[in-house]
Amino acid sequence: MAATGDSPARRQRRSAQKDRFGQLGFHWESAALGDLSRQVENRAAAQPPAPFVAAAIAADVLAARLDAELVAWWLADLVLALALGWPRPLPLLMAQVFGRAFRAEAGGGKRIRPGEKDLERAVCVALVQPAAETCRLASELSRRAEKLLAVAPKLRAKGAGDVIFLLLNEDAVVGSLTTKNLSRFAARRLFERLQQLDAVRELSGRTSFRLVGL
Prior knowledge:
Elements: H1 8-23, H2 30-45, H3 50-64, H4 69-84, H5 119-151, H6 160-169, E1 173-174, H7 184-196, E2 201-202, E3 211-213
Antiparallel strand pairs: 1-3, 2-3
Helix pairs in contact: 2-3, 2-4, 3-4, 3-5
């Protein structure tokens, strides 16, 4: 029987977490997973700054299981997103845990792990670099999107509008794209034209399977 106040949405979320943990190679008993899920929800609803909340849940997980550091950082990114009201988490901390931000200045640069001294400072520092990189990338993509929209009137290919829409809304579009109004040959010609106008880039670096995007 579900615990009092355990809504269907929460049970579904915990089931998804259990599946994800299994994919990461960690298997948790239902009771322990329920406790951990409640900790995640409570930490996300707490008042401290979001980076401190992320550090706290990582420490909670590692205190429960010493072999679960991967899960700890995955949940830290999840709690960070929940605390900041983001629609989905990003692997910001998971990508930084072996970086310079998590190296202690003393002790020969020993890596700072969840629950250890200076973890909160390390989390804050680790978030600065991806945040700055995200802002830079967003600025660049915005500029390139404006360039693509500016050259759109120069395109004569039937179905070019569908391709422009895909390029603006997807990370990449396959170079052999076919649509109701565009053949594979016509799509290749359109992408070549867009590259000549410096509106898109070929992202794969290959000639056999091309990916095109901003």
